Amino acid sequence: METKKVQRFECKNCDYSTSIKCSYDRHLLTKKHKNNQLETKPIICHNCNKCGKEYKTQSGSWKHKKTCNTSIIYKMQQLIETNTELTRIVLQQKQIVGELFITST
After folding, report:
1. Contact of 70 with 51, CB cutoff 8 Å
2. How many structural domains does the chain have?
3. Which residue from 3, 89, 91, 99 lies 20 to 30 Å from 80 (Cα-Cα)?
4. Does 29 map to a domain?
């Protein structure tokens, strides 16, 4: 059984959408459309402090923040980089000590 694809009617200025043509036509006949005094609604973004993702709703942001593990991954990456740097420094010091030991004997 095939499902029909429903056509969506969208008003980009008002962020209004419907699948019913007469509702869309009625929306276009409203006072703000007749006067062309469209005011765009300010877009409120809710951002995740850990990873920077943006959400339109506070609930979407809240649900994401409960499961966002980016800060843990970031901290682990920093620890790995620090560990690599310390290993490199220890190897350099070991080489210098070896050279000093050879030159002193």
Report:
1. yes
2. 1
3. 99
4. yes
